[in-house]
Amino acid sequence: MYRAAVWGASGMAGGEVLRILAQHPSVEVACAVSNSKKGQFVWQVHPHLRANFSNLAFCNTDEGLSTGADIALLAVPHGTAVPIIESCLKKNMKVVDLSADVRLSSSKDYEAWYGHSHPNPELLSKAIYGLPELHRDDIRDAVLVSGVGCNASCCILGLYPLALMGLIEEARIEVRVGSSEAGASPTIGSHHPYRSRTLRVFEPFRHRHLAEILQELSLKESAVTLTMSAVEIVRGVQMLSHIRLSQKMSERDIWQIYRKAYAGNPFLQLCPAKPAHLRFPDPKLVTGCNNAMTGFALHEDGRRMLVVTAIDNLMKGAAGTAVQAANLMLGLVETEGLTMMPVYPV
After folding, report:
1. Where do runs of H (alpha helix) occur along the chain?
2. CATH number among 3.40.50.12230, 3.40.50.300, 1.20.1440.230, 3.30.360.10, domain 150-311
3. Where are the catalytic residues (predicted)?
């Protein structure tokens, strides 16, 4: 058994990492780090995990570093991960960081998108972007892997088959997100009484996750917009991308491109062309699992296209992909601990 230290374990993503590891056949939880909840039992914050972690209590950072764990999964707030990464690497722990701190490979891009210089640019050159579908072999050999933005991963997984073929001339993306994306601490925008029953656009053109999309798909910002909307769900992300293709295509060609790109990726699924109500995925169809579902339709002109992808933001958009990457880093089967079925209906 490998041993994992989970930082930020009292948050939503950290709790989801614990839920996955609770039944992982090859990785056990060495410690659950939460400085703010130190001494409390894990089940007092995550009551659904009481049967699995009846005696596990949160510990602080120093205790987490002293466990001798093989790998650390960091689900801490953005901007706070770098010192923990440095300390874990010094302790010879491999690291998967779910925050945004090492997602971008360029320090110049990091400063442009996050508004300040990176505290340790060397980490950016060392980190591998943690989407196994794109970087599986590099992740196997890595000691530091970044997490993925949930919105970014939904967009990248839906569009990378087209990007690989150089077919995206323009992409106008809308992403619809659930409330759990805002995390466990409520704000005036995420607090339930103000957010419930809304359809609210909160970013019209340029969310910071766009940086990851441009980086991973090798697209120019002038060709892509990313509009974000808050919708009445708790878990889930749905991307709708209106694409203008760089050349005229047939629907048969598009099917072949997606099938080839998705082959060998155990968590990527294509929606059927029929019946019509299943052609485009609803986040409800992936709730609680690590799957990403994609559907598409090609306009009769052969140039315009709609691509729709759905994921569970806490799973494929965060904890699920992090554990998937950890499996690869530890030399395990990629799907270990991640074969849970989606919960439906929800």
Report:
1. 12-21, 42-45, 61-65, 82-90, 107-114, 121-126, 132-140, 150-164, 192-195, 210-217, 251-262, 320-329
2. 3.30.360.10
3. 150
